[in-house]
Design goal:
Distance between the termini: 30 Å
Number of helices: 2
Number of strands: 0
Largest sheet: none
Helix content: over 70%
Radius of gyration: 16 Å
Low-confidence stretches: none
Strand content: under 5%
Structural class: mainly alpha
Shape: elongated
Order of helices and strands: HH
Length: 55
């Protein structure tokens, strides 16, 4: 896992954190999509819909 050091206001830190981590978040989402498809036989859309019903 990558570590980043950020400085600035809360807004600046949050913005930079999102900017720097964008690719990692997208890769994680693709991984979860594949896991749900492979193990639960659910599309990512179906998995999200089921999760909303459980809330």
């Amino acid at each position: 896992m990558r570590t980043i050091e950020l400085k600035g206001s809360s807004f600046e830190i949050g913005f930079k954190h999102g900017e720097v981590g964008r690719n990692e978040v997208h890769r994680s989402l693709l991984t979860y999509e594949e896991l749900f498809k492979g193990y639960a036989l659910l599309s990512w859309k179906e998995a999200r819909e089921k999760a909303l019903l459980q809330s």
